Queue: 3 jobs
Job 1
Amino acid sequence: MLLPFVGFSQKKENGTIYIEHPAIDIVDAFTKAMVKGDTAAMAELMTDDFKAYDAVPSTPYSKGDDKASYLAMASFWFNNLDYYSIEAMGDSYPDAFEYLKDPSDDNAVTVESWDILKGVHKTTGVKIDSYFHRSFTLTKGNKIRRLIDYLNPEIGNNIRRAYSKRTNGIIYSEHENINMLRLMIAAAENGDGVKYYSFYDEKASFWDLNLGDDAMLSLEEQIEQTNKILESFDIVSIEQVGYPDYMEYEMGGTGVLYSWWNYHLERKSDKEHVKVPMHFEHTVNEEGKIVNQISFYVTPK
């Protein structure tokens, strides 16, 4: 009998949300000083017992960073990032919350901001373009006592990794998948479409330079597109340029064939010779089937 009343509990206010508030102005000044590397101005806006927490890796046992540590971190960002900025995310804006019940301070104010952090690391060139959420707690004297940052930790990981040299797999100049590619191209040169497409997975996807950025063709659509070209052109020969490379990547666990060719075609209407430079990138699965093809060429006229 009580079930129908579960969704009708009483509401109780716990303060007020402000879109304009002196605490928001403090946070804005703090952010601008941070981007300028003005740690002295930042320090003036912080309490002596300031604490900052990185919310993503923190645990209930984390002690956080004190005022000096956070200012050192801010200085590091300024000195190591080009094109450094912290700006509001899209149409977002900060809110100030004055809570009726707040155990940290009788008149504490919380400011929540949703930003985008941007920059390029000066040494490694690692680009930063990340969401950055911050939760500030300010005292009744409008000084920042606590700051909780929500930031993707992979930013720091990517920068640290970039300082070291590491391999990412093996490059092969001869490999069974390169043999497969040569057989496939030979089939195309000799008009053997059945054999040519037998090297593709039935769910393979295709993209080429002549399609839109987000366009992707299925195997059936790719066959249809190729047949339209062959209605106007005959393949005379396919000339290998350089040699194919097969990259067996460690990161991501994929294998990709890179190859360069000159397609020599004859236009059926006037028997004119047309050369089409072609670059392929074929992703190969563990069964040796092509699951994705990216090609760069200009459609012949």
Job 2
Amino acid sequence: MSSCKITGGAGYIGSHVAKQLLEKISHNVIIVDNLSTGHIDTIKKLKEIKDFRFVELDLSQYFLLNGLFKKEKFDVIIHFAGSSIVSESIKNLIKYYTNNTFNTANLIKCTIYNNVKKFIFSSLAAVYGELKNNKEIEESFETKLINPYGMSKLMSEDILKDSFSKNRDFKYIIFRYFNIAGVDIFYDKGELSPRIGEKHEPEIHFISLIVKVITGKKDTLSIYRDDFDTKDGTCIRDYIHVEDLANAHVEAIEYLDLNDSDIFNSGFGKGYSVKEIISTMEKVIQKELNQKIDKRREGYPFFSGANNNKIIESKGWKSMYDNLELICKNAYA
């Protein structure tokens, strides 16, 4: 049985990875989270699936963190903890370099000093910056950063790569996320009934913002410009269901047993425009949504689409929920 430490496991993506691991008898899970953006309610819901150890700890607390490593003897680290709002990173870049880069360096240091061999890291497509030709992004593309959030993640990637070059027994997988949507796929009496969901304050995910409009928690949905060089003038995003993304992380644990370190884009390999997302959600709820055209947000590219050939061909990864209507229905469930 492998022992998996998940940092940020009380958050959106980390909790879904934890859920999938808890459902497997071959993994022992320990979650570490400072609960600054994660939720204790999520931890309680995960414990209803299977009991595990939860440690409330900030990754900046190096000596406490290292003590945990010495006590628990982990086989793999899956690292989600960090700050994740583009607009906030522009206003408060020091916070992002501290939470995302310095704290990751602390975690990697503990990982290596305690002879943990596997490290799975959540990065993001923001490391590629703005593309001018609306071309699906490949892992080999040059990084052209346009916000501190992306820079903080790319610096963390570089620390991982440098650490690997000095420790050949240490292996890593870097997943570069595109847009994540949906929640726990769980059916109760034939109906979608998620056990764990998505909580952000402030909410940053577009489909979840649509749900806020539907439920009356938000009056109007903002479309940040409609005159871009795209098929309908609105931004293009590649949406991946959180269950598929979580599955890629779970599979990466065994992948590293037989394969070298690598970087993978995590997307469905297709882009949807803002207007297409709205139209699909309107179809699901069978009514029109209040919307308005707003000014462009600083630091956000207008096109972000994944080329996912590498993760399919190298890892044999297969998506289970590549259906925009299902994603919208699941997010609203």
Job 3
Amino acid sequence: MKAFFDTNVIIYAQEDGRKAEIARERLRSGGVISVQVVNEATNVLRRKYGADWDRINRVIGRVLAAVDKPLPITMKTYRLGVDLARSDGFSFFDALLLAAVINHGCGVMYSEDMQHGRVINGLEIRNPFV
């Protein structure tokens, strides 16, 4: 079963401590991210951590080496994202992530920010830190 990693897993993997160890272990096991996750991680690393562009490129490079090619944001993804936001009450950006994952056929999405244990269109959301 292919796993998808939300941005928070990528960010925690850059830190120290228990959550960082869990995040790195999950990433080492392989999976997939989306272009949206790359963009969000870049923004968080720059804004919250004050990382310079060279560090950001190294972090993103390490992540990309550990996972499959990032999923694109397509019109199919956009349409499903809108449907999920409308029907399930997710924020648009969370719904867009979920749509990319569902369209790709992943069985699990690791995220600290969404409802642990919830299943949407066959996709299970798991908080890897509980």
